[in-house]
Amino acid sequence: DTGVSQDPRHKITKRGQNVTFRCDPISEHNRLYWYRQTLGQGPEFLTYFQNEAQLEKSRLLSDRFSAERPKGSFSTLEIQRTEQGDSAMYLCASSLGWQDNQPQHFGDGTRLSIL
Amino acid sequence: AQTVTQSQPEMSVQEAETVTLSCTYDTSESDYYLFWYKQPPSRQMILVIRQEAYKQQNATENRFSVNFQKAAKSFSLKISDSQLGDAAMYFCAYRRHSGGGADGLTFGKGTHLIIQP
Asked: Average pLDDT of A37-55?
């Protein structure tokens, strides 16, 4: 078990640029989640996948955000035309979905800073 | 919508003593899960303990235990024999039964736990 891996750890970009983050879940986990955490707050749910299917999207996920999980393995989260308010830690988590009580395991996160 | 409230932004405890972190939640669901996660500074979120709402027995994991009061919608975390390594942000989280749809966790704002040596 190598844990949930996220890349990059830090991303600094100018307002208006596009950014893409990657998440590699624990290998046997079929569920994958994205959260956003701003300073001093708890994580907020953005979206989740079961295998390759995106089953739920939060209202926080504006049209500028898109997430994919091709082949049900790694996932990418893309933010287009970044804004100052997008500055946050983006957390990925994965879980075994076959049993409902399985907890989510989190990665280290990608910290996004918008200049 | 479900909400999770942690009313203590910060708590401080002497090493080796016991501390209790509070959490209340609001839901209309009868079947759900509750979790406490620990987030050390600049490190990943780690699951501390979980409770299934249909179980009346309070969960226990070594020095960590919960007091789950379903009717009061309260889910407090007790840390016994506090250690320096327990210092972190602690988040209470709720997840409804996946048969109901959304599977994302709803988190509280967190409690910053300080351990005094």
From this structure: 92
Inform me whether the pLDDT recorded for A113 exceeds 70.
yes
By DSSP bridging, strand A75-79 and strand A10-13 are: unpaired
CA A47 to chain centre: 8
Residue B105 lies in domain: 3-116
Partner residue facing B33 (CB), from A45, A48, A101: A101
Note whether B43 contacts A108, CB cutoff 8 Å.
yes
Mean pLDDT throughout B61-88? 97
Number of domains in chain B: 1
CA–CA separation, A85 and A91 (whole Å)? 16
pLDDT (tens digit, 9 = 90+) per residue, B48-64? 999 999 888 999 999 99
Q: Does A7 reach chain B within 8 Å, measured CB to CB?
A: no
- CATH number of B29's domain: 2.60.40.10
Tell which of A35, A38, A45 to mutate to test the B interface (max B CBs under 10 Å): A45
Is residue B104 within 8 angstroms of chain A, CB to CB?
Answer: yes
Radius of gyration of chain A (CA): 13
